[in-house]
């Protein structure tokens, strides 16, 4: 099978690159093993855990950070473009590069965020909470949403909070199996009459409140589900708050971006894993082989590695070393096993910054030399600490778009040359 | 004697609270037992069953010392048969008793002692003879038979002996002893440390305690005090002004991500490092190492990369599949070995039971120490020290712990056979999980509402009802205590899914949301201490995910 570009990895990075290339009319395929960090998304695409000023000095303070390859100017442009990309795929993001806001954590804390899905509650400033009357509604028996924790967190910032629990006959059925009362299982029930019944129950409780918060369990397929619910709830303002573990809006984002990619003509090969690659005489990557299509070679002009970090298996740690398992690329990592991890899991973890080494155009190095038609994007890159810097989504989006642009530009040049 | 840091003894003696002004009326007990490990718990139970008024105190939680940091092996005694035949005989006798009284804590797996090509097959004959002398059924079987019985065994073996080893859950065992002590009137104070003793005319008459949560101090009076604090017993004894010549011996173990073997696997040779592989619950355990450490390190519990490598190598010798099995975590405990009084060099170390009447030995009345021994012989240790306590109090009561089942193991022969177990359990996974852990006490758990069966911990099948029962009835203060009572967070995810769920339930019944949030942070850090030495492969994947969820999404790592 022959493509102009093949992307390895179908998470946020792979999809963003893929959509960009497909939109430009390229024949592009994504090979996805199926695991995506989007499924555990907080509701926000984070660019930087602190404020914008710090980003300006990044080349000094964090010289090996992938943001330095992208550059702030492009980062700003890509932030706007991804908002538009999400909109076309059917998702509304609020916020922008200029002015961060706060998102709510599942345990009632506030964290700076830049782009957040519209249904989630956000606050412009901590002082916004003062005197607000907030109703937080939990679902009876659902264990991954913490209304009491949110109430005490918002209460500390001056909000007046009340917690209520509701139940629905549709949810009772989920209890037949002990592991079904989960965000995704609940979201499947949140339609039709169940949605109306919930709106009626919550409306009855919402008297005198100016903000109602519910767990993010609305709409695996689209945003319309929550909008419909919110319309029925008028006049109180309704928003969702994050749950711990699987995220319904994250699952939805994964789905809508995949659909957008396919709609634009991209080919999504799911549940497959790249196991080896073939080089041509000039040392460029010519093709890939996968587990499910052992007899077929996936050929392309360019390849994007968007396999993620350890979680996505873009990096693999053995008891002896850390490797990039597909191409055996050069990896930036501490040599001794004892130095991979920090003392506290909630503290600095050196392994978070491990990843593949790239040149200024995102070509990864192998044996010290860049692989010319391969680009590495997202969490597989070395130099960023997605958790401590709160830059996970930002690095993914900006490098994914940059790699796509590089490919388009190089192709353009190649075509010009051949004319 | 270089193990005692300079000036340490003096400092401990100075810190001894001594008799303080006691305004409020002090509570009085027949016996105060120091140490919430299995020995202290067993002693509290024995004393309570014999009708004494008992207080059990523990500075942390139950089974946080060596009791919760071992193999969970119900020794047949075979391991000691050649080197210490008396210990071996004690083991097999207690082995038979525990299979009856602690049935719900024991998995009757049986064990094999295997001889590999590099071992001396001649040792096997000596071994079998010694086992038989100690009264242990040791049956030599062919390598083919061993491979059939235990498919994970190293196929290169040249000999095997089948023995009645088994797996025992030490957390469950400790908790069941405490529960029974309570049911017989004993009081329990966890998170209370011993600050000093009240000594009047060469007699210990009381204990000064500190509530570790509030910092408040509290004095109780007691006719006898039992020091059952394991390796920490050396420091406790010093606070009472007497010395015990102890030898801290560190043993490290590894937990594998699933149950590789179904029988206990041992090497048939002189006991050495990394030669026992024990299946337990959902996992397998390889251990141990044995290293003398200084007293300053007894609370460190860190496992080094070298120890990890020794254990991995030894484990793969017993069951080659271990070399490709995920290592879940590493942990270590400290054995409280005691040297003879006339042996200050600690050369003459015994792993046997040491029961000291300090009146006889040091002229200090009202204070006794029970130490040495092992998990296997905790009941016998409890019996011996309770006999001593009773004779001091001139209290005439027979020991009944060898025949009285523990709570959870009371329901006749039902749980005995596999079929029996099935009768006794219900349909939902949470109920099955609870029944496997709490035996007949599952009736106290009560799955009335549909929501009660919802799973908090999916790896270990722990339900809402079981968590609520543990909080209600099993002395749970912290989230980590809940783990020791129910196994939440002990499975493959190492707590990243269940920690927050369990904290949510605790915040409803037991504590504030602020405290519960701290508990979650402490819980994930405690799990991490065990994962860190083995953080590669899937364990590093889980670690990255845990940090993402609890720090990235929840913000627990924010200053």
Task: Give structural notes.
The complex is a heterodimer of chains A (419) and B (559). By secondary structure, chain A is α/β, with parallel strands linked by helices. Chain A folds into 2 domains: 2-92 and 251-418, FAD/NAD(P)-binding domain; 121-241, 3-Layer(aba) Sandwich (Rossmann fold). Chain A has 12 helices and 23 strands. In chain A, strands 1, 2, 13, 14, 15, 16 and 23 form a 7-stranded mixed beta sheet that branches. In chain A, a hairpin with a 5-residue loop joins strand 14 and strand 15. The longest helix of chain A is centred in the C-terminal third of the chain and has 27 residues, at 392-418. Chain A starts with a strand and ends with a helix. The mean pLDDT of chain A is 94. Chain B has 559 residues and is of the alpha+beta class. In chain B, strands 5, 6, 7, 13, 14, 15, 16, 17, 18 and 19 form a 10-stranded mixed beta sheet that branches. In chain B, strands 1, 2, 9, 10, 11, 12, 20 and 21 form an 8-stranded mixed beta sheet that branches. In chain B, strand 15 and strand 16 (283-287) form a beta hairpin. In chain B, helix 15 (464-473) packs across helix 17 (498-509). The model of chain B is unreliable at 16-23 and 413-425 (pLDDT under 50). Chains A and B meet through helix 6 and strand 17 of A and helix 17, helix 18 and helix 19 of B.
Please state the second-level CATH architecture of the largest domain in chain A. Answer: 3-Layer(bba) Sandwich
Helix content of chain A: 25-40%
Number of helices of chain B: 19
Count of strand segments of chain A: 23
* Main beta sheet of chain A: 7 strands, mixed
CATH class of the largest domain in chain A: Alpha Beta
CATH structural fold name of the largest domain in chain A: FAD/NAD(P)-binding domain
Name the poorly predicted regions of chain B: 16-23, 413-425
């Amino acid at each position: 099978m022959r493509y102009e570009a093949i992307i390895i990895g179908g998470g946020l990075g792979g999809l963003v690159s893929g959509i960009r290339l497909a939109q430009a009319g390229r024949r592009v395929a994504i090979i996805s093993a199926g695991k995506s960090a989007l499924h555990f998304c907080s509701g926000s695409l984070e660019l930087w855990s602190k404020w914008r000023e710090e980003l300006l000095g990044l080349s000094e303070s964090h010289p090996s950070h992938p943001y330095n390859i992208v550059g702030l100017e492009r980062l700003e442009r890509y932030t706007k473009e991804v908002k538009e990309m999400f909109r076309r795929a059917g998702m509304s993001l609020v916020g922008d590069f200029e002015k961060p806001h706060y998102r709510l954590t599942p345990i009632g804390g506030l964290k700076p965020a830049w782009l957040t899905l519209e249904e989630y509650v956000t606050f412009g400033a901590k002082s916004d909470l003062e005197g607000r009357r907030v109703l937080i509604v939990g679902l009876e028996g659902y264990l991954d949403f913490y209304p009491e924790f949110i109430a005490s967190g918002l209460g500390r910032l001056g909000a007046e909070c009340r917690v209520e629990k509701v139940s629905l006959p549709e949810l009772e059925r989920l209890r037949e199996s002990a592991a079904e009362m989960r965000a995704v299982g609940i979201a499947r029930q949140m339609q039709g009459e169940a949605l109306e019944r919930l709106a009626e129950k919550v409306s009855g409780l919402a008297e005198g409140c100016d903000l109602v918060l519910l767990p993010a369990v609305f709409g695996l397929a689209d945003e319309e589900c929550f909008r419909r619910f919110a319309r029925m709830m008028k006049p109180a303002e309704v928003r969702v708050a994050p749950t711990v573990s699987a995220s319904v809006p994250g699952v939805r984002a994964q789905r809508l971006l995949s659909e957008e990619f396919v709609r634009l003509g991209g080919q999504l090969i799911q549940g497959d894993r790249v196991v080896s690659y073939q080089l041509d005489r000039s040392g460029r990557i010519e093709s890939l082989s996968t587990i499910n299509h052992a007899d077929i070679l996936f050929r392309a002009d360019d390849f994007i590695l968007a396999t993620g970090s350890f979680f996505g298996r873009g990096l693999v740690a053995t008891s002896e070393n850390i490797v990039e398992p597909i191409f055996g690329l050069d990896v930036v990592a501490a040599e001794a096993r004892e130095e991979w991890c920090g003392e506290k899991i909630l503290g600095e973890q050196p392994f978070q910054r491990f990843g593949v080494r790239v040149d200024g155009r995102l070509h990864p190095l192998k044996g010290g030399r860049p692989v010319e038609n391969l680009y590495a994007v997202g969490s597989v890159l070395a130099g960023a600490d997605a958790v401590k810097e709160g830059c996970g989504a930002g690095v993914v989006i900006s490098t994914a778009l940059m790699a796509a642009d590089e490919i388009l530009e190089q192709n353009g040049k190649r075509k010009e040359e051949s004319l | 004697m270089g193990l005692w840091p300079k000036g340490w003894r003096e400092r401990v003696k100075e810190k001894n609270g001594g008799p303080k002004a006691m305004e409020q009326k002090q509570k009085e007990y027949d016996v105060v037992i120091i140490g919430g490990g299995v020995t202290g718990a067993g002693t509290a139970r024995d004393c309570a069953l014999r009708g004494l008024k008992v207080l059990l105190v523990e500075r942390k939680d139950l089974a946080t010392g060596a009791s919760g940091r071992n193999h969970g092996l119900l020794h047949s005694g075979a391991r000691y048969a050649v080197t210490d035949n008396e210990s071996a005989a004690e083991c097999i006798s207690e082995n038979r008793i525990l299979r009856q009284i602690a049935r719900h804590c024991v998995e009757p797996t049986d064990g094999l002692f295997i001889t590999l090509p590099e071992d001396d097959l001649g040792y096997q004959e000596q071994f079998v003879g010694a086992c038989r002398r100690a009264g242990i059924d040791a049956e030599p079987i062919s390598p083919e038979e061993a491979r059939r019985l235990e498919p994970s065994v190293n196929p290169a073996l040249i000999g095997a002996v089948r023995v009645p080893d088994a797996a025992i859950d030490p957390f469950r065992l400790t908790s069941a002893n405490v529960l029974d002590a309570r049911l017989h009137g004993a009081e329990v104070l966890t998170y209370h440390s011993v600050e000093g003793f009240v000594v009047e005319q060469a007699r210990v008459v009381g204990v000064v305690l500190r509530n570790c949560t509030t910092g408040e101090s509290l004095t109780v009076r007691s006719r006898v005090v039992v020091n059952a604090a394991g390796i920490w017993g050396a420091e406790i004894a010093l606070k009472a002004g007497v010395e015990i010549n102890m030898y801290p011996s560190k043993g490290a173990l590894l937990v594998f991500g699933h149950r590789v073997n179904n029988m206990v696997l041992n090497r048939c040779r002189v006991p050495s490092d990394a030669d026992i592989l024990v299946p337990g619950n959902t996992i397998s355990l390889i251990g141990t190492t044995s290293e003398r450490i200084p007293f300053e390190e007894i609370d460190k519990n860190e496992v080094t990369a070298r120890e990890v490598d020794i254990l991995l190598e030894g484990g793969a010798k017993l069951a080659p599949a271990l070399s490709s099995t995920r290592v879940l975590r590493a942990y270590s405990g400290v054995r409280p070995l005691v040297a003879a009084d006339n042996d200050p060099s600690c050369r003459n170390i015994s792993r046997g039971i040491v029961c000291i009447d300090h009146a006889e030995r040091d002229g200090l009345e009202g204070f006794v120490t029970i130490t040495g021994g092992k998990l296997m012989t905790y009941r016998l240790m409890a019996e011996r020290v309770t006999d001593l306590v009773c004779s001091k109090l001139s209290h005439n009561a027979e020991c009944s712990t060898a025949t009285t089942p523990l709570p959870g193991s009371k329901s006749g022969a039902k749980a005995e056979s596999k079929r029996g177990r099935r009768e006794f359990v219900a349909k939902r996974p949470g109920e099955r999980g609870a029944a496997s852990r709490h035996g007949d006490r599952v009736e106290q758990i009560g799955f009335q509402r549909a929501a009660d069966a919802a799973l908090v911990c999916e790896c270990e099948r722990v339900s809402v009802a079981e968590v609520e029962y543990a909080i209600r009835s099993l002395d749970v203060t912290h989230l980590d205590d809940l783990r020791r009572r129910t196994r939440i967070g002990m499975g493959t995810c190492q707590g990243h899914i269940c920690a927050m769920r369990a904290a949510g339930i605790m915040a409803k019944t037991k504590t504030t949301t602020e405290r519960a949030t701290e508990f979650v942070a402490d819980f994930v850090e405690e799990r991490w201490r065990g994962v860190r030495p083995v953080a590669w492969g899937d364990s590093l994947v889980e670690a990255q995910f845990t940090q993402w969820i609890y720090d990235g999404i929840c913000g627990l790592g924010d200053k």
